[in-house]
């Protein structure tokens, strides 16, 4: 890598795209931009997106970042994106329908049918749920046969961007593993699973490693997006695996917590053991990631700020309430629960309210409830991968000092905040690894800056422990 070369990371998230430029020599993000795009729900439970809007957002955002770092040369591009998406296209690359995202919930009938087929869990190493690609494929086959008749290729979200950049039909191992159409241990597509889901294995994209070159930017894409034709595009990774890489988690005694709209707790494992959550592939080696989610983390804060505070910051009133919220407990299950048990039907609740509770206690209870939900998810992952010596967090909720101190005090583990971590940085690191700037994931991890902003607080430990015990008891009773 020459002195004036940098790498680009493109992360196609559920609500928008983020593009970052990483200088691997400095280990620093030197430019970043983001753009949102809409989702569509034409029917109850639907969650659809327009691939053309993905591409338009990527083009405008990438052009902004590329202009910001000129005259530095973009040496390579890494990709990340929201996992499990179903997008079918014809031979010309034209979508036969809108993309169905992980949040699609019209597929319950098809999920139940595929879940009864033991081949899926045996080969996919996960319990079949609505989030995976396979039941969406089965739903489309059942409800839109005309669209299926035009289909020739299946793409995951980030891989549509790859196709628009390079013309290649390709995905990486982490996204392939997250479809439930792929043999996780043997690392190959399974024709029988595709057929059972109503599709054809002939539609399966080529699979590469996350740090392997998948293609190069075409002249037409180069003109449109502002890159140089021939720029390598690396395999990249699904957003979960990319977030682990981008946060610098490379050891089994570290846990990554990505806490945005939802929270994902991720730990490294040598075997595909999902525990109470899910098992995905690692972007950095042949290992695996055990993940447990809290579906309504930042979503709970947004609700509180909208419904209780007229748009105000939830941390302001919460700061005047004592640790433990005077016995008021919030269960952050607005979109269902994963731990202590998976239950898509359960919903959020406040428990233990008395006439003495006011706005400060309600605000603090929301923040603490999110921290307790994350703590419970971390303990579930730790049961698989081992107790952590450190939890590294990234995402908007980590800006709350109350949340960080509560989590540290409950877990008795230091909380390190990675301000520049996450999936977009992980995508850029894939590009840096694939072009030889970093020798391995450990080398890349040394470039990640961690701020230890929360340690266990002896003054809050007892109150937090009591409140966490009440949370666990209430959660067990509700779910």
UniProtKB/TrEMBL annotation:
InterPro entries this protein is in? ATPase_NBD, Carb_kinase_FGGY, FGGY_C, FGGY_Carb_Kinase, FGGY_N
**Which intervals hold domain Carbohydrate kinase FGGY N-terminal?**
6-246
Provide the alphabetized UniProt keywords. Answer: Carbohydrate metabolism, Kinase, Transferase, Xylose metabolism
Residue intervals of the Carbohydrate kinase FGGY C-terminal domain:
259-433
Q: Which Pfam families match?
A: FGGY_C, FGGY_N
Q: Which family does it belong to?
A: Belongs to the FGGY kinase family.
State what protein this is by name: Xylulokinase
